[in-house]
Amino acid sequence: MAAPAPRAYKASRVGDYNGLTDLAQHVKRFENALATSDSVSDAYKCRLFRNTLTGLALDWLDEVPQGSIQSFLQFSEQFRTRFGTSKTTSRTIHEVWQIRQALDESLRNYVDWFSKMNAETKDTTDDRSTMIFVHSILLGELYDSFVDNMPKTLMEARPRAEKRIHLEDTKALKAKAKQEVTPPQTKKGEAPKTDPNTPRRSFRDRN
Q1: DSSP class of residue 207?
Q2: Where are the transmembrane segments (predicted)?
Q3: pLDDT for 26-53, tens place per residue?
Q4: CB within 8 A of 39, min separation 6: which ones?
Q5: pLDDT value of residue 34
Q6: Can you give the pLDDT at residue 78?
Q7: 5-to-44, 46, 66 alpha-carbon distances in Å
Q8: Which of 55, 88, 126, 140 could cross-link with 18 by S-S, CB 3.0 to 4.6 Å?
Q9: Which residues are CB-contacts of 141 (< 8 A; sequence separation ≥ 6)?
Q10: Which residues are CB-contacts of 67 (< 8 A; sequence separation ≥ 6)?
Q11: Is the pLDDT of residue 190 over 90?
Q12: What is the full DSSP assignment across 28-55?
């Protein structure tokens, strides 16, 4: 897919695609960016498109046998076949309202999950999201600090949460360093403890 750039052609930035977000939107943005030029060859289109890929999408392309793609049409069809089911999920504010930090969940995991859910929610405002973020965390020092000095925006709340996360991570590392090499045995009939940093699989998990 190596090809020189055509003269007088200025590439437009269309954003990156990682294989997880809406494929149709990404392809549409890419095609619109090329619509103003008739001088772009298939080989150069493939090169441009490759430069927009990251993550899973780039990993997939790296596994495609070299020389097996003969045209941009073939390239785009193979790409749609592999990632055609990827589409941005639209959440409702009702789902975000249900988010709660579980008793056995780390603050890092909660913040990551809340951020993902909130980014996928269209019918919300920053004021509403901030209120949900604050009141969904467990009672503790961070919650108390929020109550004493309520953040007005998520941009104001996040750095305070991240400072607490750093403190939790530091304590966890020190605690791990003190543990014995052999992990403690689980007693008969006792359920194994959940890793507080285990990522959620759906919005219902850990609520």
Answers
A1: -
A2: none
A3: 888 888 877 766 667 888 888 888 888 8
A4: 6, 7, 8, 9
A5: 78
A6: 81
A7: 7, 11, 20
A8: 55
A9: 164
A10: none
A11: no
A12: HHHHHHHTT-S---HHHHHHHHHTTB-H
